[in-house]
């Protein structure tokens, strides 16, 4: 793997990119959709190096914890603080997302209830198996990379008759917000780096509409420095040749058709629905919900909850604009002052994939 | 969070539950989404699941391209 971080390789790629950017007309603005790409780009200093080469990278809506609206987080907080005898199982960073009702970390659980941080939905399932007398709600936020594992957990719960297990779903699809961003014309970008592992599940064709309908080039990228630069070079090459498409620059992991097994399972357990995203609002067919025959495992139905759309941000927080790529984290007045990793005011300062936390951690990049 | 570093399958049972070697650590992993998974295969992990098999030929091809790039800088 060390070739993917080799100095000479990186220097060579940057020189190529510099040449291409001059030809395409700098500064070229590209969006990296995935939050892990944002992290890698800053961690390895690529943001500054690319800027020097004439390419400005903008962070997109690819952090699941960040784009999950306030209403979902507050529903989870409400559940664990009002229902007795309940385990609210979720991923670690979610517990720190601040809302007007505090966070899961500061919530005071109802008697015999608690928040459990899990690494995988399987851990939540195991908790349900061992505590049949308790309700175990898995609050799962994720994109297509995580969704198959959540779908499998629900299917297993159904097969085992684990009636105490349910899902508070915050499941999001990556292609629809790209369309929403492009249709809004609010953000000026000339191409996309597509997520590596979402694409490992859904394949490359899911992005064809970006090239076909909007004329923008893009490339699927891996997570090593050379992977990211190879993809950027591919996007620039498409710009210069005026032949926008979807190039796969992460072929060792991503297949054209994605992962058919994972897709089949998603489709078996879940169905597409309209969904509200933080910062992006209602996007048609951009989320997933449990199919009717798994309704018994839907926490919203089980506990009579409603997800009420409401103002997302705490006063002053500009996460929504950051998620749309309209402003940089450093443009927010709260950044680094009233909002910091120790006392975050919005999810983008909480999640390791959140653009604000990334900009804060790697300030020099 | 996406982990780009591949893991090697050590063992697996008929239900797709198995163990992988990830950076020298044995990790329990669900391999249900990998068709014909076998010990020795390299896979990409996400939240306790293997989501894709690493294609070693494609990896070699990309590496060769990168080496070419690095060598071109020398000359």
The rounded distance between the terminal residues' Cα atoms of chain B is 39 Å
CATH architecture of chain B: Roll
Report the sheet-strand fraction of chain A: 15-25%
Query: Which sequence of strands runs across the widest sheet of chain B?
Result: 3-2-1-4-5
Given helix and strand content, the structural type of chain B is alpha+beta
Give the overall shape of chain A.
globular
What is CATH's topology name of the largest domain in chain A?
Rossmann fold
Average pLDDT value of chain A? 95
Strand order of the largest sheet of chain A: 4-3-5-6-11-10
Low-confidence stretches of chain A: none
Helix count from the secondary structure assignment of chain A: 15
Output the CATH topology of chain B. SH3 type barrels
Biggest β-sheet description of chain A: 6 strands, mixed
Report the C-alpha radius of gyration of chain B, rounded: 15 Å
Primary descriptors:
heterodimer, A: 365 residues, alpha/beta, Rossmann fold, 3 domains, 6-stranded mixed β-sheet, 15 helices, B: 75 residues, alpha+beta, SH3 type barrels, 5-stranded antiparallel β-sheet, 1 helix, 25% helix, elongated
What does this structure look like?
The complex is a heterodimer of chains A (365) and B (75). Chain A has helices spanning 7-24, 35-43, 46-53, 64-67, 70-82, 121-130, 147-160, 175-184, 196-202, 208-214, 225-240, 260-269, 299-302, 319-323, 355-361, and strands spanning 28-34, 55-62, 86-90, 114-117, 135-142, 165-172, 191-194, 218-220, 246-248, 270-277, 281-290. Chain A is an alpha/beta fold. Chain A is built from 15 helices and 11 strands. Chain A has a 6-stranded mixed β-sheet with strand order 4-3-5-6-11-10, sandwiched between helices. In chain A, strands 2-1-7-8-9 form a 5-stranded parallel β-sheet. Chain A folds into 3 domains: 2-60 and 182-248, HypD, alpha/beta domain 1 (Rossmann fold); 66-173 and 258-302, 3-Layer(aba) Sandwich (Rossmann fold); 319-361, no CATH class. In chain A, helix 1 (7-24) packs parallel to helix 11. In chain B, strand 1 and strand 2 form a beta hairpin. Chain B has a single domain (7-74), classed as SH3 type barrels (Roll). In chain B, strands 3-2-1-4-5 form a 5-stranded antiparallel β-sheet, with no helix packed on it. The mean pLDDT of chain B is 91. In chain B, 35% of the residues are buried. Chain B has 75 residues and is an alpha+beta fold. The A-B interface holds A 1, 3-4, 6, 8-9, 11-13, 15-16, 34-36, 39-40, 91, 119-123, 142, 145-146, 148-149, 152, 195-197, 200-201, 222-224, 226-227, 230, 251-255, 259, 261-262, 265, 352-353 and B 1-5, 30, 32-35, 44, 46-49, 51-52, 54-56, 58-59, 61-63, 65-67, 69-70, 72-74.
């Amino acid at each position: 793997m060390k070739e993917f971080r080799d100095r000479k390789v990186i220097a060579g790629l940057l020189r190529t990119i510099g040449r291409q950017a001059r030809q395409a007309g700098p500064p070229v603005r590209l969006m990296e959709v995935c939050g892990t790409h944002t992290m890698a780009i800053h961690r390895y200093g690529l943001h500054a190096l690319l800027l020097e080469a004439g390419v400005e990278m903008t962070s997109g809506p690819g952090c699941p914890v960040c784009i999950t609206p306030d209403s979902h987080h507050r529903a989870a907080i409400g559940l664990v603080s009002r229902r007795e005898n309940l385990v609210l199982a979720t991923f670690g960073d979610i517990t720190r997302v601040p809302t007007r009702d505090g966070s899961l970390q500061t919530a005071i659980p109802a008697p015999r209830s608690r928040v459990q941080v899990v690494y995988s939905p399987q851990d939540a399932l195991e908790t349900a198996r061992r505590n049949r007398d308790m309700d175990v709600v898995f609050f799962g936020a994720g994109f297509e990379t995580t969704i198959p594992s959540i779908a499998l957990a629900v299917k297993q719960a159904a097969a085992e008759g684990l009636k105490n297990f349910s899902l508070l779903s915050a499941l999001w699809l990556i292609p629809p917000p790209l369309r929403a961003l492009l249709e809004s014309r609010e953000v000026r970008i000339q191409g996309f780096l597509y997520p590596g592992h979402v694409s490992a599940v859904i394949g490359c064709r899911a992005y064809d509409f970006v090239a076909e309908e909007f004329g923008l080039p893009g490339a699927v990228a891996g997570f090593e420095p050379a992977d990211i630069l190879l993809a950027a070079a591919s996007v620039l090459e498409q710009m210069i040749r005026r032949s926008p498409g979807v190039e796969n620059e992460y072929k060792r992991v991503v297949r054209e058709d994605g992962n058919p097994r994972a897709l089949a399972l998603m489709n078996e357990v879940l169905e597409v629905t309209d969904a509200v995203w933080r910062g992006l609002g209602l996007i048609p067919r951009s989320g997933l919900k449990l199919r009717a025959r798994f309704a018994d495992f839907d926490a919203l139905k089980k506990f009579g909850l409603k997800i009420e759309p409401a103002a997302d941000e705490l006063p002053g927080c500009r996460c929504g604009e950051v998620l749309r790529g309209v402003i940089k984290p450093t443009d927010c007045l709260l950044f680094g002052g009233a909002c910091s990793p120790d006392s975050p005011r919005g999810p983008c300062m909480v999640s390791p994939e959140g653009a604000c936390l990334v900009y804060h951690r790697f300030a020099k990049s | 969070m996406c982990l780009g570093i591949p893991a090697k399958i050590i063992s697996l049972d008929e239900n797709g539950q198995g163990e992988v070697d990830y950076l020298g650590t044995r990790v329990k992993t669900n391999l249900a989404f990998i068709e014909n998974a076998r010990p020795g295969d390299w896979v990409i992990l996400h939240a306790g699941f293997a989501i894709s098999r690493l294609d070693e030929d494609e990896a070699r091809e990309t590496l060769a391209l990168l080496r070419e790039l690095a060598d071109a800088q020398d000359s």
